C-alpha cells in the first residue's frame, strides 16, 4: 500500500498537527511508533484521524511520545499529496515593563536630581498632569481623570482646574511645573492640535538627564503614526487603550506614585 509518511519525532502532548491535502480526499492517521509499524506491515493498528474530505486537517497529539502521520488514498481513486507540520504552540503571555522599571518616570519635587530645580508660585501641587485633545475627553480623558482621583491622586485636568477668566497658558504652565507625573493621550486629534504641542514641550522640558517622566497613552493610533509625529515618543514606555482598560492604567500610575510617598 502506498502512503505518505511524516515522522514527527518526539512531541509533547497537546501539540497540534496540521495536514494539508492537495487534490482528492484521503485517509489521515496520527499514530505512535508501535501502531505505525503495525500499519506499515498491514496489521491491525490504532490511530487518530480518519477519512478526510476537507483540508487542512488538525489533530491534537494526545500524549508525549514519538509520533507519525500517514496519509493514503485508502482505495479511493486519484493521487494524494499532502504536507504536514506541527503548529507552533501558544506564545507566552505578553508582559509589558512595569512603570516602576523606569527610574525617573516619577519626579519628586523635593529632589533636585541632575537638573535645575523649577521655582513655582506657592500653591497646590499635582500628582498627575494630563495632556490631551478635547475630542478625546468623553472616551478616555475624563474617565481616566476620575479613575485617578478615585485612587486618591490629585489630577491637573482642565475640566477640574480651569475657570472662566483664567489665563489658559498660565494655568497650563503651573500644572506642568507642579506635577510629578505627565500623561499624554496620543490620538489623531492630539497630533493636529496646537495647545497639546505646547503642553508636550513643557512636559518634555521637565525631564531629568533625558530620562522619562512621561507616560504616553496610545488611543486608536498606530506606531507608524506616533513615529511620524515624534520618533522619540514612539520609543517610550507606553500604554494603549487597545490593550489596557482605563482603570488598569490608573491603578498602575497610582501604585507607582503611592510607592514613592
UniProtKB/TrEMBL annotation:
Gene Ontology molecular function, alphabetical: NAD+ nucleosidase activity, cyclic ADP-ribose generating
Domain (TIR): residue spans on this chain: 124-257
Keyword Hydrolase in record: yes
EC number of this enzyme: 3.2.2.6
Pfam families, sorted: DUF1883 (PF08980), TIR_2 (PF13676)
Protein name: ADP-ribosyl cyclase/cyclic ADP-ribose hydrolase
GO biological process: signal transduction
PROSITE patterns in the cross-refs: TIR (PS50104)
This protein's UniProt keywords: Hydrolase, NAD
Hydrolase in keyword set: yes
Broad enzyme group: hydrolase
Catalysis: reaction(s): NAD(+) + H2O = ADP-D-ribose + nicotinamide + H(+)
InterPro entries assigned to the protein according to its UniProt record, in alphabetical order: DUF1883, DUF1883-like_sf, TIR_dom, Toll_tir_struct_dom_sf
Amino acid at each position: 500500500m502506498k502512503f505518505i509518511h511524516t515522522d514527527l519525532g518526539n512531541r509533547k502532548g497537546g501539540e497540534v498537527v496540521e495536514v494539508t491535502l492537495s487534490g482528492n480526499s484521503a485517509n489521515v492517521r496520527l499514530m505512535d511508533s508501535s501502531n505505525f509499524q503495525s500499519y506499515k506491515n498491514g496489521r491491525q493498528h490504532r490511530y487518530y484521524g480518519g477519512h478526510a474530505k476537507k483540508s487542512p486537517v488538525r489533530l491534537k497529539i494526545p500524549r508525549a511520545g514519538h509520533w507519525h502521520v500517514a496519509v493514503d488514498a485508502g482505495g479511493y481513486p486519484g493521487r494524494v499529496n499532502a504536507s504536514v507540520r506541527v503548529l507552533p504552540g501558544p506564545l507566552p503571555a505578553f508582559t509589558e515593563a512595569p512603570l516602576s522599571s523606569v527610574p525617573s518616570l516619577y519626579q519628586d519635587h523635593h529632589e533636585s536630581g541632575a537638573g535645575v530645580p523649577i521655582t513655582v508660585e506657592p500653591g497646590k501641587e499635582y500628582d498627575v498632569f494630563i495632556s490631551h485633545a478635547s475630542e478625546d475627553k468623553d472616551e478616555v480623558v475624563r474617565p481616566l481623570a476620575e479613575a485617578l482621583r478615585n485612587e486618591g491622586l490629585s489630577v491637573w485636568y482642565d475640566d477640574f482646574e480651569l475657570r472662566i477668566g483664567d489665563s489658559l497658558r498660565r494655568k497650563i504652565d503651573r500644572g506642568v511645573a507642579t506635577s510629578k507625573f505627565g500623561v499624554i493621550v496620543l490620538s489623531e486629534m492630539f497630533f493636529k492640535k496646537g495647545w497639546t504641542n505646547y503642553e508636550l514641550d513643557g512636559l518634555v522640558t521637565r525631564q531629568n538627564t533625558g530620562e522619562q517622566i512621561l507616560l504616553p497613552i496610545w488611543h486608536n493610533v498606530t506606531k507608524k503614526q506616533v513615529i511620524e509625529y515624534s520618533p522619540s515618543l514612539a520609543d517610550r514606555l507606553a500604554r494603549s487603550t487597545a490593550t489596557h482598560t482605563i482603570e488598569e492604567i490608573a491603578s498602575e500610575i497610582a501604585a507607582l506614585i503611592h510607592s514613592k510617598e
